[in-house]
Amino acid sequence: MSKTYHLTAPLSDEDTIQLKAGDIVYLSGIIYTARDTAHKKLIDLMDEGKELPFDVKGSVIYFVGPTPPKPGDPIGSAGPTTSYRMDSYSPRLINEMGQKGMIGKGKRNQEVIDACVKSKAIYFGATGGAGALLARQIKSAEVIAYPELGPEAIRRLEVVDFPLTVVNDTYGDDLYKIGRAKYEIAD
Amino acid sequence: MREIKYEDIVKAVKDHIIYSGTNLPKDALAALNKAYDEEESPVCKEVLKQLLENADIASSEARPLCQDTGLAVFFVKVGEDLKVVGGTLKDAINEGTAKGYEEGYFRASTCVWNTRENLKDKIGYNLPAIVHFDLVAGDGLEIEYAAKGGGSENVSRATVLPPAAGRDGIISFVKEVISNAGPNPCPPIIVGVGIGGTFENAAISSKHALFRTVGTTNKDAVLNDMEGELMTKINNLGIGAMGMGGRETALAVHIEANPCHIASLPVSVNVQCHSSRHTSFKL
Ligand code: SF4
Question: ipTM score here?
Answer without folding.
Answer: 0.94
